[in-house]
Amino acid sequence: MNASRSVTAASIALLALLFTGCAAGASDSGSDSKPESADKPAATQTKEEACDIMVTSLSDLQSLSSVDTSDPNAALAAFKEAQGKIDDAAKQVSNDEVKPSADDSAAALKGYVDFLDQASSDPANVDVSKMSEHVQALTDSITELSTVCS
After folding, report:
1. 69 and 33 in contact (C-beta within 8 Å)?
2. From CA 106, how far away is CA 111, in angstroms rounded?
3. How far does the chain reach from its first CA to its final CA, in angstroms?
4. Is 129's pLDDT higher than 50?
5. Can you tell me the distance from the alpha carbon of 60 to that of 86, in angstroms, rounded to the nearest whole number?
6. How far apart are CA 150 and CA 145, in angstroms?
7. For residue 23, is pLDDT > 50?
8. 101, 127 in Cβ contact below 8 A?
9. What are the structural domain ranges in the chain?
10. How far is CA 53 from the centre of its chain?
11. What number of other Cβ atoms are within 10 A of residue 5's Cβ?
12. Closest Cα to residue 138, out of 86, 92, 95?
């Protein structure tokens, strides 16, 4: 169980740092436009509108850098909540240029959170070497989203 806490805490800390850097690096287009509905994307969404949705969600994740990793269950709950927000944001994106990157970022974060969940619930069977693969996939997807939205 102690090893599980160490892996989970290290993973959570690493992801928090990743979000702090990537969210800060994303370009804010300066628009205050919001999607027409929180449940469905605007019919003719501009790239700027789509990027605003994702940049706002990524910026919200900066608060994860202050997650208390000494309580892996609470930290995991915070990451699951964040993953839900990114997933919801990606569902609001309809712009053809931004949608693939938004979906990739949401999928990569889900994969990482699923990995952390498995690590905390079944530490004896966790392949710790997979952590770097999840972090790399997440880094790549957020970098791509930042590039599309810059």
Report:
1. no
2. 9
3. 43
4. yes
5. 9
6. 9
7. no
8. no
9. 2-148
10. 13
11. 17
12. 86
Pick from 129, 122, 147: nearest CA to 55:
147
Q: What is the pLDDT of residues 71-104, one digit of tens each?
A: 878 888 888 888 999 999 999 999 999 999 999 9
Backbone angles phi, psi at 83, to 5 degrees: -60, -40
Tell me the CA distances in angstroms from 58 to 17, 52, 119, 122, one per residue in order. 12, 10, 24, 29
As given in the structure block, the two tokens for residue 14 are: 């690493």
- Chain length of the chain: 150
Per-residue HEC secondary structure of the chain comes to CHHHHHHHHHHHHHHHHHHHHHHHHCCCCCCCCCCCCCCCCCCCCCHHHHHHHHHHHHHHHHHHHHCCCCCHHHHHHHHHHHHHHHHHHHHHCCCCCCHHHHHHHHHHHHHHHHHHHHHHHCHHHCCCCHHHHHHHHHHHHHHHHHHHCC
